[in-house]
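Q: Here's a chain of 230 amino acids. Please give me its 3D structure as tokens.
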Amino acid sequence: MLLFYQSDIVNNQVLSEEDSRHCIKVLRKNIKDIIHIVDGVGGLYQCEIIKTHEKKCEVRILSTQKDFEKRDIYLHIAIAPTKNADRIEYFLEKCVEIGVDEISLIQTKHSERKNQKTERLEKIAISAMKQSLKAYLPKINELQDFDKFIENNKSTTKFIAHLTEDAKPLKEVVAGKKDVLVMIGPEGDFTHTEVSKAREKGFQIVTLGNSRLRTETAGVVACTIVNAFY
């Protein structure tokens, strides 16, 4: 099954220009052909093409399936953007494929990147969602200061990945949790002050294994560990 994306398909049954071009010019779909569209919030729609315009392909909804492959957990990963944009894009793509519900970009003391536009990240997330046959599009939050993030976050279970003597393996403490936040630091790691502040706000310190991981790798590993239980 090949998926297309339209965020408000109930009120706007027209594919985006990109999806329209792919549908009509690349896949050579015609009037009365059946395609499947997701809305990013769990809806899967079986649709019939009624107008083959390469910029505005129009469809008619035949059937609707809500909560398509709804997850039993809400996974939120907060991560410091990498200096190399390709690496954070890789992290995002793989985590969407594996399963993630929300991603926050955080500015830390050792952060190498001071700004990060989310427009491109959202396009990558949409592409990964369609490729992996998912109907839920993760929420991607704008870059925000570390202190502000830990102060305002309301997740039930909060972890910060950091190598300390009292850190527990994430795989040993995440089982059974339904609302999980995992915070991943920059290449230079979190400072001791940041870790202390996070601990005061209810974050539990965890490790992702014995290896020293790149930021984007740590994010993917954390996502994989949490999803392994569900």
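Q: Can you summarize the key feature?
A: The longest strand covers residues 44-51.
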